[in-house]
Amino acid sequence: MKVTIAGGVHGNELIGVYIVKKLMRENFWLKDIAIDYLLANPKAIKECRRYIDYDLNRSFSQEALSEDSHIYEYERAKVLKKRLEDTDFLIDLHTTTANMGITIVLSKDDPLSANVAKILAREYENVKILRWFGTEEGNFINSCVKSSITIEVGPVCQGVLDATLYFDTLKVLQRTLDVLRKEEQLQKSVECYDIFDYKDFPRTNGDLDGMIHPELLGRDYELLHPGDPIFLRFDEEEIFYDEVPSYPVFINEAAYYEKGIAFCLAKKSIV
Amino acid sequence: MKVTIAGGVHGNELIGVYIVKKLMRENFWLKDIAIDYLLANPKAIKECRRYIDYDLNRSFSQEALSEDSHIYEYERAKVLKKRLEDTDFLIDLHTTTANMGITIVLSKDDPLSANVAKILAREYENVKILRWFGTEEGNFINSCVKSSITIEVGPVCQGVLDATLYFDTLKVLQRTLDVLRKEEQLQKSVECYDIFDYKDFPRTNGDLDGMIHPELLGRDYELLHPGDPIFLRFDEEEIFYDEVPSYPVFINEAAYYEKGIAFCLAKKSIV
Q: Least CB-packed of A202, A252, B108, B196 within 10 Å?
């Protein structure tokens, strides 16, 4: 089995970058598993930016992969698709400015990915499973492998390291490799969250008119009810939630301001 | 009296950007005071980056201001120096990823700036005064005005808004204008902190070897003693503080990683 461990798909999410560098340097390896260490967006890592021209983790759609492009990330995606051809399992390391603890994002609906996520969620109290099968912006990097999980940890600012979250991520990554190596199986069902909608900030002519309400900030995975405050305008007017009860995630994620996402809405179900 | 209110000297510090935009939009004005609203680095604001080519807040040294340059911020600094020629007082709005509450940074040793800072620090419990008279990297924007304060709030990530800190900043800004308009004076002395040294992360060949120790993270303005842990290496080895007792500030500020600053050391004194 070949596993690829990717850091720096987003160049300013430092925990993944430094975990991959550490494991490369230590020449960490495992019996029965071939590991490929990948610093996915080296130019963005060097500049400590999310991306240079376009979000690399939205650059794997058929269109992006087929056209000749002036976009650095589209060209890089073509190189990575080739490199990932014989990868059986991708572990992609990310961080978020939202208070999401350790979230295993599943973007593929396959048994191996789901099995690994379930084992992690049952073993660690602060690990949650979030299913997100793609966006209109373009496909994620894991669209070109058979199986994968994304380990998304937060809250941590872009461009900084947080030692506690660094070692939490490392622990979950090592357990993932362990599960893959031993081919462990879990038959039991586990709770998971499915993203089904997005909420944008209040805006005028595209520019922000307000912020996440202080009562919502940091409350990822806490049930949001109609009537709960969600935004506070710059003029101090409050805006209230008026849809079906749902679980907000990625609340105030820095990189999603430009995508028109103040937070995502998820439903809870059983996987 | 002419007061300039600047936001976006760093384009990804959104609180200042959106306060300046709000006041411009409302056409906020005061009797007896002419106000100039300044979005200082429009290109960086548009791209939501700290800067394009070089830190604008280090681009006001004589050298930078005199040479023809390919650096966008050096050119912008020349324009701003001209614009600030008749400014009596500059209020410069910043944020930090460090847990610094509301810090009034004084970078000029003049009575008016010190008086305003003292009044703010005595009135608000969470306002501290920090004196920082420059760096070897180049002069701050307030080097070209007679008097100024920098309002530095945190912790907040780059590229995001925090409603509580937004309104805290606005409150302190409005009180500053009030003090200037009424020419209030405070004869009493007030505590302040003076930056006297910097500590860099552990590194090998320039690249990080470790992180801020979890026991230090978030403890800005708390006295650091010899023997206290300050860094945690990627291999889990702890590094301890071995200098004179001092107050750490700007702990884990994202923008200072590239400057070789993990945190600054300050002494407490009376202003």
A: B196
If you ran DSSP here, which 8-state letter would residue B196 be given? Answer: E
Nearest CA to CA, how far is B166 from chain A (Å)?
9
Contact predicate A156/A15, CB 8 Å: yes
**pTM exceeding 0.90:** yes
Amino acid at B144: C
pLDDT band at residue B31 under the 50/70/90 scheme:
confident
Q: At what angle do helices A111-123 and A163-182 cross, to 10 degrees?
A: 130
Would you call B199 helix, strand, or coil by DSSP?
strand
Please name the amino acid found at residue B255: A
- Chain A residues touching residue B18 (CB < 8 angstroms): 208, 234
List CB contacts (< 8 A) between B49 and chain A: 49
Say if CB A147 and CB A108 are below 8 A apart: yes
Residue among B18, B207, B211 minimizing CB distance to A163: B211
Answer yes or no: are the C-beta atoms of A217 and A248 closer than 8 Å: no
Residue A250 to residue A117: CA distance in whole angstroms: 19
The pLDDT mean for chain B works out to 96
Q: B257 and A160: CB-CB below 8 Å?
A: yes
pLDDT tens, residue by residue, B34-90: 999 999 999 999 999 999 999 999 999 999 999 888 999 999 999 999 999 999 999
Residue of B49, B158, B232 lying closest to A157 (CB–CB): B158
- Only one residue has tokens 């800004």, namely B173
